[in-house]
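User: Please check token order:
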Amino acid sequence: MSGMRDEQAGTENAADASWAASDEEQYRAVSAETESEELRKEVDGLRQALASHPVIDMARGIVMATAACTPEQAWQLLVDVSQHSNVKLREVARHIVDSVNGPPPPPAVRTALRAAIAALHGSTG
């Protein structure tokens, strides 16, 4: 009887080891997939940042010319407009650049832009 129990225990231990190995493989596969997805998202974000950088720089130049301010003030103005209008900064920049030869920015962006320019001039002079 003891031999049969030993054999049964050996079989159970082998099954447990097999399950543990299988669990470890599944964990590694899921971890690799999760890491891969995070890297994909990061790369997408970096690509989007690179694509929007020139538009943001153009908008910054437009703000500097129209609001008579420094590059740093223009950047802060764009950030403030983005926050107060609840519109992403790259979209605020796109609206400003598009408005040079096209339609004006949406009302929320225009209102925030006016307020930010007024605050800038109120604080500088």
